[in-house]
Write a structure and sequence with these properties.
The protein is mainly α and 716 residues long. It is 70% helix and 2% strand. It contains 27 helices and 7 strands. The chain has a 3-stranded antiparallel β-sheet. It has a two-stranded parallel ribbon with strand order 1-7. The protein has a two-stranded parallel sheet with strand order 2-3.
Length: 716
């Protein structure tokens, strides 16, 4: 965690970050498809209705298109339909209540609160819900009757139907994002293997595997259509991770840092990386796997057993098996240039499980997949998320209260201002506000700068061209197409395109460009200032919560390590699912810690005696080492017929209460005591033979990491 920043420096850094332009992979065909959806809706509305209907329907298609560009693994047509349905409902209710200021303000407050709470479900839900509130504030200002309100709502919903239909009729690289995510996971493991060749203690970044797991959750309909190459590789990448680490580690694997054993280890790691990279390339491009001949020659079992022995040999055999499985799992032709491959060899691993040239001989299993709930099934999940966040200490609840108050106050403020488009004040505030400080202030600066550029360019074009409804509609489609294309490059560019889009769109209804442009600039600035001021007055700082995040990570790491030692203690009763779930919890806790630290670095508040920069850095390093030690042990889980380990049972029994007590101590800034863990380790050492077993070596590494953690968080 960086040195606490004063307000001026924090504002400067968030402003620079908000105005930065990022490199992004552009998707012109997808952007063109979204722009065509807006064009179809506007054209139909202009042909059969009025300019006001065209404007409201265009906002529906616009919002649906934005929803499909959000980072989400749910089917894109579903996102478009859900966004349009929510906007149609909110717009219709807005039309019904717009005549009564008090009733409409109450509606805005409730809708904004629910939009804020939607962040508890996920970022995509939060962004789409906020967009619905913002667009509703525009569409309800268009004059209409009750029947007209129904027409407006229907056309907004039609915008979502059109966008969804275009996605279904004109798919662009179907499954492409999932292919990329899975390929990134395999490439990340390959990179880990290469780094281990030179640094046996190299850290492993679990982020690509976390993303791959999220992408792997699919609906039953998607499961029936999923390409063959997307089956099984994620779980295989997970199995590579501990085997690679264990093979490279000189303590657990046992291969010295110099000599023929280390040379063999480096060869195996390099060949495995080559196979993983080739497999990742094949998955990304949807083509056959092409493996260099040299890698296949290395990944053969040497005659006579080779130079490796003990745990290192066991890890090498598992690595060879996994690389063969990685090629076979593609279910595509594998291209190799070598000839005269030796016939499959069969041997017995140290687990007593028979394998043929790396392929476990087992009955074929039915393909399984991670289930993604439907939108209807998401309702109880959303309700549980709401209940979970209904506590005053929750940043999500504080965000919801903040958005609700600012949207209501912004609407009332906009009504008192002279311009006729005062709704841009609450609209900007709703779109700028986020649950954390850095993103709120980044977006506030970016939105003002982007709006200034966007309305300036759009106003200039309107002044020069003097367009009518159809030309204005064409310019609006171009602006929204650019926004879809450049959405990943930064919020400032997105805001510029959105500002131009609104100017052109309102030009369809006959609004003067000068009024629209100049009013939008200073009203946007007012809304942005209101949003940033509200966060300063009613914040939800991340910095004071760092100790809690650290304790959560320690607790999850502890469960992961205990689950592994339990498998050594009683192999016959081992529960692989328990180990897997503990690993996922540990990753989620680490990810939450990383996000909290990133947010805290931008905050202009001190740690208030909770956790200093040095303590945070040292504790993070200790917990990464603790997780790595547990990962190494995962590569050596014994078979069910292995002998139980009394030392592992004793160590796990001592570790469980010690971790629970340490979690409380970390939260309360109290000293951490690992004396019982040290005593259990000494007893295990006393009864162990020579060389010590893998479990004991791992326990020693784990205990060192726990000592480092205790030193890092010791109250000063």
């Amino acid at each position: 965690m960086a040195t606490p920043l004063p307000w001026l420096r924090a504002l400067k850094e968030t402003a620079v970050s908000g105005l930065s332009v990022e490199r992004a992979s552009l998707t012109p065909l997808i952007a063109l498809r979204g722009a065509c959806g807006v064009a179809v809706v506007i054209g139909v509305a202009l042909a059969v209705g009025s300019p006001e209907l065209a404007v409201s329907s265009a906002f529906g298609a616009f919002a649906s298109g934005v929803a499909t560009f959000q980072r989400s693994w749910r089917p894109r047509p579903v996102l478009a339909l859900a966004a349009a349905a929510g906007l149609a409902l909110s717009t219709f209710l807005g039309y019904l209540l717009i005549g009564s200021t008090s009733a409409f303000v109450l509606l805005v407050a409730v809708w904004a609160f629910l939009a804020g709470m939607a962040w508890g479900i996920g970022p995509t839900s939060g962004v789409v819900a906020a967009l619905n509130v913002a667009v509703m504030l525009i569409t309800v200002t268009l004059p209409t009757t009750l029947l007209g309100a129904l027409s407006h709502a229907g056309l907004i919903a039609l915008g979502g139907v059109v966008q969804a239909g275009l996605i279904v009729l004109f798919p662009v690289r179907p499954w492409g994002e999932r292919r990329d995510t899975l390929a990134d996971a395999l490439a990340g493991v390959a990179d880990y293997a290469r780094r281990l060749r030179h640094d046996p203690m190299a850290p492993f970044d679990p982020e690509p595997l976390i993303e791959a797991r999220s992408a792997a959750a699919i609906t039953p309909r998607q499961a029936r259509r999923r390409p063959r190459q997307l089956h099984g590789y994620r779980a295989m990448a997970e199995r590579f991770r501990p085997v690679l680490g264990s093979l490279a580690d000189p303590v657990v694997g046992g291969a010295p840092l110099e000599g023929p054993e280390r040379t063999r280890v480096r060869e195996l790691l390099g060949a495995a990386a080559t196979v993983l990279d080739a497999t990742a390339r094949a998955i990304r491009r949807g083509e056959r796997v092409r493996i260099p001949e040299e890698a296949l020659e290395i990944l053969q079992v040497p005659e006579g057993g080779g130079v490796l022995s003990g745990p290192a040999r066991k890890a090498a055999l598992r690595l060879i098996a996994l690389t063969d499985d990685a090629v076979e799992a593609a279910q595509e032709p594998v291209e190799v240039s070598r000839t005269g491959l030796r016939p499959r060899e069969t041997w017995q691993t140290l687990d007593g499980e028979w394998e043929g040239h790396g392929f476990p001989v087992s009955k074929p299993q039915r393909p399984r997949h991670l289930h993604r709930p439907s939108l209807a099934a998401m309702v109880p999940i959303a309700l549980r998320a709401f209940r979970r966040e209904l506590r005053w200490s929750s940043p999500i609840l504080r965000h919801a209260v903040r958005v609700s108050a600012v949207a209501s106050a912004g609407y009332l403020l906009g009504k008192t201002l002279p311009p006729a488009h005062g709704y841009w004040v609450p609209l900007t505030a709703v779109m700028v506000l986020r649950p954390d400080f850095s993103r709120t202030y980044e977006r506030g600066v970016a939105r003002f700068a982007g709006t200034l550029v966007g309305v300036g360019v759009a106003g200039g074009l309107m002044a020069v061209l003097g367009p009518g409804p159809y030309l204005s509609a064409g310019l609006a489609v171009v602006a929204v197409g650019l926004m879809y294309l450049l959405m990943g490059t930064g919020y400032a560019i997105t805001s510029a395109c959105t500002g131009a889009y609104v100017v052109f769109l309102l030009g369809i209804a006959g609004t003067l460009w000068s009024q629209t442009a100049f009013e939008r600039v200073w009203l946007t600035a007012t809304g942005g200032v209101l949003a940033m001021l509200s966060y300063a007055l009613f914040p939800a700082w991340e910095t004071p919560l760092l100790r809690d995040r650290l304790a959560d990570w320690l607790e999850a790491n502890g469960r992961y390590a205990i689950a592994l030692f339990d498998t050594l203690a009683d192999p016959a009763e081992r529960a692989p699912r328990q180990v897997r779930e503990a690993l996922l919890d540990a990753r989620a806790a680490r990810q939450e810690w990383d996000q909290s630290v990133s947010r805290a670095e931008a905050e202009p508040v001190r740690h208030r005696g909770r956790l200093s920069q040095r303590s945070a850095t040292g504790a993070q390093s200790a917990l990464v080492t603790m997780g790595r030690a547990a990962m190494l042990l995962e590569a050596h889980i014994p078979g069910r017929d292995a002998e139980p380990s009394r030392g592992a049972a004793d160590f796990a029994a001592a570790l469980a209460p010690a971790v629970a007590a340490a979690v409380t101590a970390v939260r309360e800034s109290e000293p951490v005591d690992w004396s019982e863990v040290h005593a259990a380790l000494e007893r295990w050492n006393a009864r162990a033979g020579d060389p010590p077993p893998v479990g004991l070596r791992t326990a020693d590494l784990l205990t060192d990491a726990l000592d480092d953690l205790a030193e890092a968080v010791e109250p000063k």
